[in-house]
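worker-3 :: picked UPF0182 family protein
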Amino acid sequence: MSELFDEEPERPGPESPGRRARALVITGVVLVVGFFLLTAFASIYTDRLWYKEVGYSQVFSTMLWTRIGLFLVFGTVMAATVAVNMHLAYRYRPLFRPVGGDGSVDRYRDAVTPIRGWLLGGVALVVGIFAGTSAVGQWRSYMLWRNGETFGERDAYFNRDLGFYIFELPWWHFVVDFVLAATIVALIATAVVHYLFGGIRLQATHDRLSGAAQVQLSVLLGVFVMAKAVDYFLDRFDLVTEDHRIFTGMNFTAENAVLAARNILVGVALICAVLFFLNVWRRTWQLPSVGLALLVLSAILLGMIWPAIVQNFQVKPSEADKENPYIQANIDATREAYGLSDIQSETAYQGIPSGSTSKAQGNTVLRQLTTTPVVDPLQVRETFQQRQRIRAYYSVPAVLDVDRYTIDGQEVPLVLGVRELDQSGIQASDQNWSNLHTEYTHGEGLIAAYANRIDIDDQANGRIVWAEGIRGEGTEGGTDLTDAEKFESRVYYGEQSPSYSIVGKASAGGRDLELGLPSTGEGTDDERVTTTYDGKGGVPVGSTFNQLMYAIKFGEPNFLLSGRVNGNSKVLYNRTPLERVERAAPWLTVDGDPYPAVVNGRIQWIIDGYTTTDRYPNSQRESFDAMIDDSLQQETGLQTIPTDEINYMRSAVKATVDAYDGTVTLYQWDEDDPILKTWMKVFPGAVKPKDDISDELMEHLRYPEDLFKVQRYQLARYHVADAGEFYSGNDRWEVPEDPNATREVFQPPYRLFSTGVEDTDDWSLTSVFKPRGAQNTLTSYLQVNSDAKSDSFGKLRLLEMADENTPGPGQVANEMQGNDAVAQKLQQYRVQGATPPRFGNLLTLPVEGGLIYIQPVYAARSATSAFPILQYVIVKYGDGVGIDRNLPRALADALDVDLDANGDSEEDPPAEEDPPVGEEPPAEEDPDLSIEERIAAALRDADAAFQAAEEAQTDGDTVEWARQLELAQAAVDRAVRLANQRASE
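worker-3 :: tokens ->
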């Protein structure tokens, strides 16, 4: 008995390792799922706050609920289809299984049976999530289908409104593809369940399928083939947008072979579907198998082999004749889709002035060139950067813009850029979170120079004349654009703005933290000018919850920990103009180059928005990126199509973004575009009517550059209106390569501002064409009116050259630079050790029946911090080439006539002699000196200049070296003239 009491009680065994592992796995899964859910919630919540801040809450809510609806509907349909079929397959499984089956199947069945409910739900959930996610990406197609407008035009082959192809057909394609996908997934899942539970017995010699399996699989196969019949029916309409070797659209083979084949395949597929449905009662696979084999055979014979036979044996022997009407349809549709149908063409333009030019004719030409820009935005960028950046943490864009302004009652062209914040210029030791996100928050002001003026005496500023800039060391700056009583110069929203900034101080009397810029720019880097943002833009982050959400969004705990995030703080993000417009109007394709304008005392970014599609019947489809590529292209705007290929484009919207508070405003521009009208129905109130555009803003609206590039790309082929000539391809053009580019790339279009014969200002966008291939001649000149206030705005004008040997840009550039006078002037920059000259934009303008070419020449010091200085302007008109310090004198040199300096902004030195910059009055003009004394003085001047040139060359200062050589040469010439004068006496 005592032994019983002395026995130790049994201790509980250790916890099973499997149980702990399962707990850890479950905990890990919960944490991971929770993290993703919290991140997704933070993203949606912060997006809602941002859209509310910019005033486009309806855009956000419409997109959100549409996406949720599509996800739920299509995800539920897919999940339900798979789950119901798997459940039916299990429910109607054979109750008794024959002995001697496959042992591996039995093992799988035994493993699956206890968890079959979880497994069914898991499979349905996964496929439902995938289906719902794919449907979310179709929200644009769905909204276009629901709200699509009509074009009022019908295609020539199916007699359907063009809106059917653009708004309805893409959505129906998605629905049919979804049905096909859902049927295939359900078919696979059903077959697996039947196989596991005995409904399908592959080892049996007969009755391999149970009755339930045969019924279920027959119905699913019938649905699949019926959906395929609908797919064949819809594919018929795709023939008008299919790409072929020569063109896009319906062709002879498509209409006479492929279309007939798809009509037949629709019938065969329907018959096959009926046979599968009948198999529910017949319980034999013989007829459905024959029908399915017939469908596959028909698809191969009719869909592939027969069109190939027609193409190779009927079309190719006489392709030009067979394809003629289809090519003509492609030409007409392409010109309409890209806005080329109303182009004004002028054939047999001479391009070369006839006869010699008189002084009166020369003055007429000069008057038309009064406002022509000779300052190259690309070359003067470094001048802007070094003379007007002021602080190392400011910068200007890589490519400056050209715009026009009315100054002192006269419209003038300006080269301009915004002085933006560049945080890469902040010292590395100062790059901490507080500085980057609460102190260095914004740019400051606009920088502008006159594009048509040269100050030949101001070498310190590259000989450009400032219209807007901060006064500092060596520059007077200017306030020609911002002399209003109140001008908001701070730039919180720009092309180079940081990802986010936190602004706002804790109280009205609190300390300003954000760094600003002194009004004169003459302060030292240590001088602190601070400010605080008080605009309406920005999302409040004063509450702890909002701080938590943005800490998750940006992955930055300082939103919660930093004392600089207070109750009045706002966070500014999505700050580039393109970002803001793309998010406010996600259905637009936006131009890649926003440009700034001063409107009512504020800097406004102006962005062109396009409606595009790749579904316009018979129009040529091309890559958007390829069409807009040139030597200045930096960024491509957002496109709202699956690929970057388009075959329709309209300038539909003008958008503005306020550089201070980020306000986004969309204005309707094309009032007839059906695609824009459709999106305005989807998002009512998001786009304001065209009449709301103010006069001040209208002055700065211009013809969209990317649209012009697309149009010139298409016009290179589609200037040909005759189908036979188009097929021959012997009159194809191309945009010339940029003669100044380091890579083979198109010459960019140029914005020109000139004065017409009747003193009317012409603000235009221009480009030229040359024959396709290596030939470097000029075939035509393309110009579009870019004045939004003009009745002729958007009118394309094409001048086709009468002479096939009219020189092209590359040939003209070679002729200009090879001219003896030009070569002599530029020789000083081409000696050993000198920095070669830089050639600016080669501008081409039609003037007085001919073409005039203008190209500025810049020279830079060899030092890396030096900026190029405008040294000369080269002009070619007819056979004459001239070079001088400014445009009027270069033109006079080219025409070999004396011209008045009408319209020239700078004081014009006497045309008889071109005194180099900085030359002192010649000594021979002093009447108190003898001729020998004047010769000696001239030689002393020459010697001093030569010594100064040597010092400049040693220092690597090419510009100063060239200037001193000019002074020395002028002094030597003066001594020679005086010596000749003495000899003649």
